[in-house]
Records
---
Amino acid sequence: MRMVEPITDEIVFADYDSIQRAFFDRHLSRTFDKRTYDEGNIRDGVVSIMHGSRHRSRRRIENTQFRIEDLRSYEHVLFPPIVERFVTAAVTDGEADLFRLGSVLAVALAAKRAGFDYVLEESRDLDDLVSYVEAFAQISAIVDARDPDAVREMAKEVLRNFKEQFGVPSLRRRQRLLEAHANGEIDERELPRDIMASLLRHRDDPELGLTDDFGVIRAAAIYLQGGTHTSAQTLVNTVDLLLDAKERRPDYWDRVATDATFAQRCIHETLRLRPTTPRAKRRAEKATAVGDVMIPEGAMVVLDFHAGNRDVNVFGADADIFDPDREIPAGVHRWGLSFGGGSHICPGRAVAGGLPQPSVAAQLGDGHLFGLVAKMLQAIVRHNPERHPQKPQARDDRTERFTRWDEYWVIFEDRT
Amino acid sequence: MNGSSRMSRYRAEVDAHRCVETGDCERIAPTGFALDPAHGSARVLPTVGDTPVDELFDAANACPAQAIRIFDGRGNPLS
């Protein structure tokens, strides 16, 4: 075994196999910087940076909102009219900021799943939710922020406003309904099925660590952000890669429009090439080893997803190329490492990316889920978007997460 | 490990049609699940009763294909 002394307290893994091993190491924790994620940060006390028994207890509750039956309802029943409504409006306008459009589409479902009430017909509600999500994304990425103090200041105000506008009203409504249910006044089926309601039902369990109302709101809000921001970023990145490939592979465009299986593969290939979190961090709670690398207690471990997803030993010599048809070794995901793995795997992976496709596409059953982003992509590609010649396609450079967009304007050649 | 956290109160299922054979479940709960190349999916092992229930939940939560379900003694889904 070789000892690696951490240089500037970081050990970096950049190959696929090592990162996979790190996912399953119980001593590598995401609870790595309490101060950064303390009061005033949306991630204070949320499941994604917990470790050990509390993390497990919270996921047991929160994961119940990601059961296949619910996801099927999202994809087949709730989502199609939302897509129809907002994509049609954008096409009628002839132009759209694709990042904003993707955010509106995603937030409509993410808010429902997280447990924040809004009125679909009230476009200001969705616009406000999207603005909060954009702020939350900056707050969550504070560890990679170029100006963390500015983010910290912004966080306090944004969280206070969100709490007043959506948090407390949604929480109080659920508390009233749960009380009515406990008194036998309403049936179980009349209770909301969402993260916030689930947490409220179990908040007396001390293991969950939900000591105050704001903690419940923050715990649910992280799903609002997680269910919106990554989906919208992935939608934009996919369109961007398809536009780049248009000359090389003109057939991709029609295939996306007509074949949901191929559209889903485009999403997975995009997630592989452009993970919205290109590098993740872990802290060694105890000395451990990943492969033949010894990791001292307290060391910071960086998992370089962007590099691992381009590992030529796994994805082939052309790993840098956008090729949704690529052959993938058994046991490897088309999205690479981008949803994480092990106990911290992204709980919303099947909402956004659908279920993994079997190695033989013909084995896809009726119960297969293609994921909401593939559905968004198909709806948009059918109207032939092109990069807007006068309005920007601009990266978000506020963090070191270089795969993210701030705005991405397109025109629709087909307005019908 | 205490008796109350054992599998005897729970039941595990693997949906073979959904499983994509990553082996994550086997890695997390080696006495509960194993890949079975002959069937092209993971399967529940006879030793599942000896598996700490925390490991079973971790395996279900970590399954990328959401192919593992854990049920309580009354058949209610817990994962």
Note: DSSP finds 15 helices and eleven strands in chain A.
---
Amino acid sequence: MVSARERSPSHQALVRAVLTRSAELLDPEDAKDLFANALQAAREFLPLEVCQIAVLRPQDATCDLYGVSLDSGITHRSCPSDVGLVAKALQCTDGLLLHADELARHSRPELDAPFLAPGLRCAVLCALKGFNGSVCGALMCATSAAEGYRPEDLGATRMFALHLGAALELLQARHDLRHWNAIVKSSHAPILGINGQGVITHWNPAAERLFEHTASEAIGRSIALIVPEDRRQELARLLGQIGSGRSVEELETSCITGGGRTVAVVLTMSPIRDSTGEVVGASSIIRDVTSSKQANERFRLAVDSAPNAMILTDESGEILLANAEAERLFGYSRAELTGRSIELLVPHELRALHQSHRKSFADQPQKRAMGVGRDLWALRKDGSQVPVEVGLNPIYGENERTILASIVDISERRKIERERARLLAETQQAVEARNTFLSIASHELKTPLTALQLTVQSLLRASTRQREPMLAGQLMEKLRATNRQVSRLTMLVDQLLDVSRLTARRLKLERARTDLTSVVKDVIDRFAQSAEGSTIHAPDCGPAWGHWDSGRLDQIFTNLVANAVKYGEGAPIEVELADLDGEVVVSVQDRGPGIAPEDQARIFERFERLVSHRHFGGFGLGLWIVRQLVEAHGGRIEVHSQPGQGAQFIVTLPKEVSAT
Amino acid sequence: MTEERELRAPWSARVVLVVDDDDDLRMAIVDALHHEGFLAVSASGGEQAVQLAHRHRPDVILLDYRMPDQLGTDVLRRIRRGGIGSATILMTGAENVDELLPRLGFDPEEILMKPFGLDLLLSLVDAVLPRAGRA
């Protein structure tokens, strides 16, 4: 065996060789091998019978103590770091020689027994230091050689301790590295590393799965491998940012897979620096958000194409999102809405109230309709207001709460409701008018019918009483009464039929060349024979020819003159006729009580009568029928009257059928 | 029935006051009653009816319910206030007589629904005659 002393010049090289090999060890459990090798090498240049290496456990005040002896090989046990030789050795950063008596003084028999063996003459202690100079353990050697240790052996020991410390640290780092490797490999998130040139250096299994490239395919290729064409500029910018030492946080972008699929991702990229602080690459952690992005997109599309206006706000009422229908309803573009307060869409006078309602909703958010029982109005960009119905839905996100308002424009519905109410009122009015009419009609028909029945039955009874023959005068009187009652009933029935025809638009005019003057004069003549008290002044003019239904003209003027007689209170009645160019105007003027202005339009309506129906009898349909007949001829009728000064009815009739 | 009426002496003739604003109907009723031996007087309105009732103290008052100046029931109330206890018959063309009756305080047999014939008129007058003077 070669003496240790003879080998001393090559000590360093040997130690380095041993340690370099040791550094390849991956597990601290293999530390024993490291030390066995180290001691084997150490024996070559340092006489030693006992050698112990203590490795500090950073987490407590103990050490792993590895021992080596010529007989028992490598042993391992725990020991305290603050007593005995270990405590002394940890303090000796420059090494310390101890003779047998000193050795005994510093040792603890129960801990340091190997160093108290008989025959040991000398020991050397030296602390182990890592790269940064901190103590990480201690080396303790002892020899029984007669000459003991010399001062130069202390230097060799220090050198040995130095390399041993470095090797230990390296071993620790390897352990950490292996741990980190396991973490990165087991990560579900793709993690990759690139160097300063953008070349992929690291590629975990999750990256293999997402990007569909194995590590061996990816490593050594440019990161552009997974960047779509249209994102290359963005990549250059990112690399520039990393190069200047700034991280990229949560960037939403897209990548392309080996299969050509585009995936939506969120990536975080951090610069990696060397010991001088220079950026030499970057690490990147990537999150695949394709499915959540698709879900978001689907949600966005659903909201956007919803038939109602949808507006998403945060809790402070700031608009985050608005759909197409909201743009249409409010007249603002999405860009104009986003970021503004929701109160923008609330009429000014309601904003304060809306704000307080919004706050109470935020305190107790639940899906509900807004403003139940109240009319809600929204304000458009053009300042107009629109009636709306609003549903509110709180939406709970990861760390925020938003409110989705669904707004329905109900102006159309309001319009329909108003129209329905109007139609209902009209219908009710019509039903009421019909009922009134039926009641009047039945009453009006019953009275003359009763009179007729009594008169005829009296006649029958009289004719059977032979003892008392009826005088001719009495008979004539009864027959006149009968005739009058029959005429009255006929007139009422005619009116009923006219109403029915006019309402159903079934009235047909039998137009023929007619002289209106003679029609009017005939009517006046008829009244002159029967009118009691009223003088009727007929028009003093020649014939007025036109194409009219003479029967209906007769009906028109019979009605007007009858009205004048009825309401004229016996005063003279003036009938005038003017034959103008293309039309004839007839006026019937009485001197009765007149018609109040507010009643003048009403009298031409159906079932309207200004005084009690029993006072003058009839259905109250006369003027309505007159107006219908005049209008059927293409003409018009108007009334001029002042209360107390009589009434003047003016009928204007075109001579020919108008083209329209 | 007819024969009995014809045999009545003029001093024992029953007096009927007919009140209706419709001239034709009023005349037809008066005529019919005359032929049946009643002494019929007629009024076309409330005022005249009250005057005639006081003057003739009729056995029966036959009056229209709805007249232009007032209701038949109001006319009757004024007549009754003068201590005249005639039997009454109310003539009406109203459809809702069933609702009217309790309000007016008339029995169904005192109501004459228009249109009515001679037989009904006379039988009703006969029916209410025993009530005359009870007011």
Note: The radius of gyration of chain A is 60 Å.
---
Amino acid sequence: VVDRRRTCHAGAVERTGHAHQVTRRAFVGGASALLAGCSRASGPAPLSMWAMSYQGDYAPMLMPAFTAATGIPVEVQSVPWTAAHEKLLTAFAGGALPDVLMLPNGWIDEFAMIGAIAPVTRPDLIASVFPGVARTARVGGRDFAVPWSVAPQVQFYRRDILAEAGYPAPPETWAGWREMARAIKRRRPDDFVFLMLLNWPDALFTMLGQTGATMLREHDTRGNFRTAQGREAFAFYLSLFADGFAPRALSTEVQDPVAAFAQGFFAIWPSSATTVYDFTRRRAEIPAHLWGTARVAGPRGPGPGSALDISLCVSATSRRPADAWALIRHVTSDASELRFQRLIGVLPARVDAWRAPQLASPVIAPFAAQVRDTTPTPLIPEWERIRIEVQIVAERMVRGLVGLEDGLAAIDTRVDHILGKRRTLVQAGRIA
Amino acid sequence: MTRQERTAFAFTMPVLAIIALVFVLPTTLALALSVTDYSIYALADWHNLRFVGFGNFVDLLTTPLFWRALGNTALFAVLGVPMAIGASLFAALLLHDRTVRWKPLWRVALFAPYVTSIVATAIVWRFVLGTRFGLLNRALAAFGIPAIDWLGDPHVSVFAILLFVTWKIFGYNMIVFTAALSAVPQDLMEAARLDGASRLARFRHVTLPAIGPTLLLAAVLSVSGFLQLFAEPYVMTLGGPAQSTTTVLYFMFDEGFKWWNLGQASAVALILFVLILCVTSVQTRIGRCYEWL
């Protein structure tokens, strides 16, 4: 039952042409050829880089220009988001981190604390980045990462479904959202209005940010979810599921959200910019005139939201930090960022790059407005875990397994527990 | 020491050394870790490591998710072991029947899931179990049964995973049982038949005692397998919905590798070890009663 993963690949075993039999010489020859291929006697060894999801899949397309200019080849490994945190930590503990790694800005503090990443040596790399984004890449006053892309959340909506219900564009307030949802649900009782996957904390944390909830207290050493703002955000989040506006679904159940959106399974999808790319790529299923983007509705109109901004770091154990910084300089340049935007839709973290005409389309406008309006998240190593644990309790609340007040109390207890070690260290004065 | 003993030692030393290095040493270290508060802060700086005695165990016992994981694992084992062994035995008995043709083909077909990549099969099963377009719900709809949210409803997700696990692993024990069944003495079987024993009576009094030791072995391995269930929920549901498929091992993986609380995770490992030891010793005791050992 236990999965015994095999990561090694069978060596290329040569077969002798006529006899169809593996001879010892052919095997040894094949094995030594394989070894020679790994060590690459001529030219510099490749730099290694890990990136998640689309960034990992498409970063190799930015590399030929870098290799042509510097002569340094780059090997990019794509890592799935669901396994990224454990893979990076395990790699650090095992001394196997790549030269360059991608981190969401929420993890930078954690990786800087354990000494996995090196501080930025060239201030010009950070120079023209959005100030709000650059702040999240700073730990203890030092820059530890170069922001690569910004990912504010906006709502993607189905123009036709909203128009049917009498809305040319989605409302900007929570009350308006609910009213629209009722109108849509009346016409399409078997479908849903919103897609907020129960194992992705982004939607809930956007709402918490919008109500202005300060989620931690006492120097970020205790949970603080039982506040008026916290209750407001949770109550609204839960009501969307209770009224049948959002499906009680995990990401494993909605395997293809783009197809589901195209089929009208839901009409509003708070998501980030790569979704623009997904929709454009699959325009045969979901033509451009059927969807639009708008800022996410807030309790009293659009407001600051959470974002999954992405940065690049150099690992502290990299043997070639100069080459690694050169690579980061290349992939975070305006030209590369704009190329990446055309490739996969991610939005540049540099202010200058936003002047490019390709970012002037109306679909991008809500992102541009939102990127300047982000909520600061607590910069502590435990934050990622807290987000996930909060979402776990939120899922139980959505499924009716626990009530609002008990759930919030459980969250505070859980968060206090997670922050226990940090609390002792703060009290002992070992960390600020 | 005689010459013979020296030779024996010389031959066994390399293996013993490897066992000590890759098994005894890590186990001892894990034991040592379980009484410390090794966390991400200790990874950053060794000075943050503290000895906490049984603190991790006390902590675990007050963590609701650990109890939930324990409960889920127990549910998986209690339902899964009979299901998996029953399916294996049933398939083996069918294959053993004289009237079945193309036996090698059936054996291969039924054994194939066991050796197929778990991720690939999980993706297929996720489509089979899909709520809207899934094959299983389509089939149920033909009988007028309303759609079941197999992977999304916390009350049925365990059964969905069990269905997948049983399908995935029953082939292995089936082969073991096929081998055991071929060793059932045919003269006894013939004698029982002549004495007018029914099919059920023949199974109960001739087949079962003969395959008893194999059955015990399969049960022991299945129980320890199910108590260590991890990969199936990991690829099918990521432990969800609402942690209904989070097993002890999944909990340990999350604590240890996702959040790097290795102290806590080692404590979980120790508890799981003791648990498996207890269950297995009960099983061997039962086996002794029936003289299967």
Note: The radius of gyration of chain B is 24 Å.
---
Amino acid sequence: MTTAAVATGQAMPAPAERWTLPDARDLEAINRLVSAPLLESGSWTWRAWWIGFGVSSALTAVMAVSVLWLFLKGIGIWGVNSTIVWGFAIANYVWWIGIGNAGTLISSMLLLMRQKWRASTNRFAEAMTLFAATIAGIFPILHLGRPLYFYWLMPYPNTMTVWPQWRSALIWDFWAILSYILFSIIFWYVGLIPDLATIRDRAKTPLKRTIYGALALGWRGSARHWRAYEILHLTLACLGVPLVVSLHSVVGMDFAASLMPGWQETIFPPYFVVGAMYSGFAMVVCLAALVRWGFRMQALITINHFEVMAKIMLAAAIIMGLSYATEWFMAWYGGELADRNFVVFEFTGAYWPMFAGLLLGNVVVPQAFWLRAVRRNVVLVFIIAVAINIGMWLERILIIWNTLSHDYLPSAWRLFFPTIWDWALLIGSLGLFALMFLIFVRLVPIVSMHEVRRLVAEEAGS
Amino acid sequence: MSTTTRGRHQPSRETRSSSFALDRRAALKLFTSGAALALASCGRPAEEIVPYVELPERLVPGIPLRFATALSLAGYARGVIVTSMEGRPIKIDGNPRHPASLGSTDIFAEASVLSLYDPDRSKAVRKSTYILAWSAFEAALLTQLELEKSRQGAGLAILTSRVTSPTLLGQINALQKAMPQALWYRADPVDDDAEITGTVQAFGRRLTAVPRFTDTRVALLLDADPIGPGPKQIRFARDVTGARQSHAAEDFLRIYAVEPSWTLTGALADHRLPLRQDLIRNVALAVARELGLTVPDASLPDSALNFARAAAADLKSRPGRAMVLAGPRQAADVHALCHVINAQLHAPIDFIEPIDPMAAAHMDSLRALASDIHSTRTQTIIILDANPAYEAPDELGLGELISSVPFSAHLGLYEDETAARCTWHLPLSHPLESWSDLRAYDGTAGIVQPLIRPLYDTRTTHDLLALLGGTLTTTPHDLVRATWQSHAAAGDFTAWWRQTLQDGVIAASAAAKVATPPAKMPQIAPAEGTSNFTLTLALDPSIFDGRMANNAWLQECPKPFTKQVWGNALHVSPADAKRLGLVDGDLVTLKTAHAAIDAPVVVIDGQADGAISGTLGYGRTHVGGIGNGVGVDFYRMRSAGAPWAIDNVELTRVGDNQNILRTQHFFDLAGEAKDLQPRVTLADLAKGHALFASVDANPATLYPPHNYDTYKWAMAIDTSACIGCNACVVACQAENNVPVVGPQEIAVGRDMHWLRIDDYVIDGRPGFSPVPCMHCEHAPCEPVCPVAASVHDSEGLNVQVYNRCVGTRFCESNCPYKVRRFNFFGYADGEEYGDLGADILKAVFNPNVTVRGRGVMEKCTYCIQRISAARRDAEKENRSIRDGEVITACQAACPTRAISFGDLNNSDAHVNALRHQPHSYALLGHLGTRPRTTYLARVSNPNPDLTS
């Protein structure tokens, strides 16, 4: 961007002006703003944090108990039955992995697209990715009838001389999750290194200096370092985009590579990618609002961020609506009785209120983002983002329930009724996520200082 | 083993340390270790024992032995062959030589092996709350007998259920000779009083009618269910479906059924008219009138009148090949009228002397007993394997009366409702532990031989009667031999005995046909129309009369029409339900002048308006942990005058709703069923071309074809022959160690049956198709398993490797037939329902089939263990497996031979021929799964006069 752009009009202000407030337009101010929670924790009350920590610890304990009970008693404690053999575990998995998508997307795809506003959100979005993907990765294991043998999905030399069955979408899924989690860790850490060095340099106690120093891997900010960093970061970003698309395509193929009405659809892989991005963005919006409020980061996370993210969600909502419509059309156009009945069941069957909730949350409510006033109202954007996340969760569970409740043989049709343990694990996983995030904000700079500095510096230098 | 070892050593240590003063803890330990020793019997005895150097004759470890015996249902025998594995009976099959089995079984026979090992069985003599030795009872009885002998048995009463055992009858006779004043009462809940009285009215003598369905081409069944549950089910089902195999209309048995509620026969019928039970006599009268008999005029609704006219015309057109049958719920005069009609039609019905020799009607016998106890004539009552406190109508008050008898003893398998009223309870041996003999419905006698020594200190009815006769030494074995001594050719009894035991059937022992005098028209009045509810009762399709209510296999066996398990319900027609505002599960109070019960409602299409129905056998209070408190006891609605059909029942809604536990019918159909369970008529078949897509269609696939160069197993199921009796379901459960999950798990939808019977209602008519695994050639379950636990074998079997399964359940998700079953809990492995995990029940497992643990998927294997056994035999003889050599458990059980199994690579295989019938179809074949299990569509032969 050039100063000319600033001069030519209000509509398109210079990036630094658009994405930061005047309080955060010099490099030291940025450093101070971001590192304050880590280095000057005494100047904060942390009351909200402690409340959050307490609640999320309690919920994590709920998750721990439900996992323990699960291991002791078996998956019979859930509402799964002979017909609907999958339930919350798979829905939670797909939902969490969807949320785990946005960080990488913001970091890599927006980086490659040179969307500079990503600088103030990408750090916690990446952290969110990491935590969500980790939690997502737990569910397929918990979901197993014999979780202790989950490693049989890995190709390792064994006395049985058996390898995994490569035609199974679950094996593809296993690799997709594994590589995605590994990638997310590396990408997140690489992006952190310059900031860890900043914290090291600003740390006031020897302990912090030592720990952050060790984690900063000897970063000195030399030109060579920056060059190596830029190459690695960009390369990882290039790897990340196809990875994130493939991950969600594979998750979609868990369903699409089957024979079931409502699953066996070629639209599933792209539709899952969009859905994942959609729910991930909604979660980023929620976290951004909380981080902005909790750490007084109004200068770094501006109302313009919310507006642009609302636009992306609006676009995604439209794509989701089109995907749903395509499914319905194809079910009719394809002519298969089971598919047609399936769509009728979606609208009129036992789960119709949830299906209505899904359409409301994913397609109808986000249409409010057409209004600029809504896009620029943090509270409204937050509420709609929560609605989207609920809608996306309903979509995940209904993909399973509708298809398995109403497939080919009416004699086997039945309904799913969740048990207290189904809910405990879902709510517990939210608690674990919150707990990890709360710990993260105390240990790591929540906004990428060096990227915001660069945004501001490029402005100043140009 | 470890328990028993500890058991042997511990007591000595305990006694030493406590100086013979036993505290409570030590006493309990002693007791339990002693009990464990006695039960498990696998501890090495204290005395020196010597292992056998040569195996005992016949006993090869791992090779099962098979013995012929007979099991009783309502007193009548069904011959069975029991497989015994190292001394443990584990599976019951039919005895092909036996006329009431023909090699097939019913669910009750299949399940009786589980009852043998039932931990709730009565195990010891009990007086009040004390457990005593048999000798204590013997002493008490002998004293009492002295008293009775002194008055020639004037105070002695013996109550039995139906007795067909020649040996037992002989013993009772002998006892009555010794004590002429002693009285024998006989009452079975499955009475045939109306039928017998009907023959008395028509022919002037007690007779039993035996219809020859194989010779029949038109049958009108008035509230009759010959192929329903009962001792004749297997035979009649075989005969009826056999007569419906032909594709020529003139050679195909056409059935007209008139009934108030669904029966298996009604489901099979070509035409069925739902009609109130009381109006059915008017149908009989209308038919009689159409056939030219002089009978009173009877009014009927138009539809029923048309039905009766069409049926009568059809009956008339097939003289000698047509029959009219009335069911046991119809009054004697209707039976008599049917005899008159049948005489006119020259119906293919034989008559024999009743197999049950007692002349008194069952209800009369109970009435007599009640009045004799009331008048204190009865001082000593011995109840042999009967349960009047539960089964008898309340108005007789037999429960209280029995407890007022000074000396009462009850011999039974369980400490049941009657045992609780008796001074003494005596444990009865299970039929698989007993020597006896039994007659089938047609009089054919068979020897009951024990497969195993009594598990507990139990005795047989023969033992007890011998004791009553004052002998303590005769064994039932000797008694049975003595009965048949005269039967054998002179001098060669030993050989005859051996041969008879081998066959399980006594040659030429069937009752001789009796020539009947001309049938006499009874005095019969038509029924007046009423608008009150009539409650009809029937034997339960799952637990029959309630004796086997503690059998978990039976409790979890889905009823044919409602698919209800673990309970029964009151069936109500949709119109009546609408009028009363009832939905499934609503509790209602049924009230008559003498009784009132609460029951949940099931609304069922095809129930006659104004007719409500229930099944007997539930609501037991003293049978055991499995059966106690399950379902509604409809016996309480019975009165001595109206045991089967109770008029003027008031129905009021209670307001509560109770979940009906069922395994199907959760959704209304949307037209799918016509493709899933197609129905065709003989006219369709006559077109001569294939009616459905070829079962050999080979849709495109990306995967390379399989190379089946050895065997190619396949199953063909003829849905025309499937009557929905569930024998295959329970047989599969017995053969494959399929666990019972219990009502709580059923409520969440986790039934484990490997084989289910799909019931679809099309145009108001149910139909049955057994659904085992389809063993698809392009199996959707195989490519989705991440660990290759679901794999295809070289013979086309779709096999599940339990050890490899990690439980992703993707296979079941992707199975369009939903035939896979998952162990959500350790249903057979530590988390059993009720007491089903008791050690003793491990004896029932088939050692050739893995008992599955928690967290693994399982499913039908086509009885792979039986294929392996046949393969071993064939390889020993260096040949390939012959057609018919592998018989799956479901196939063996099926009374109608609806299931065929064989090798498609063998061009002569029966299954090959069936697959290429014009009405052969593959379930969901259009999905490209190429199922190996295929079906023949249900064929009917409707009367054009009634369809147009």
Note: Chain A touches chain B through 52 residues (CB under 8 Å).
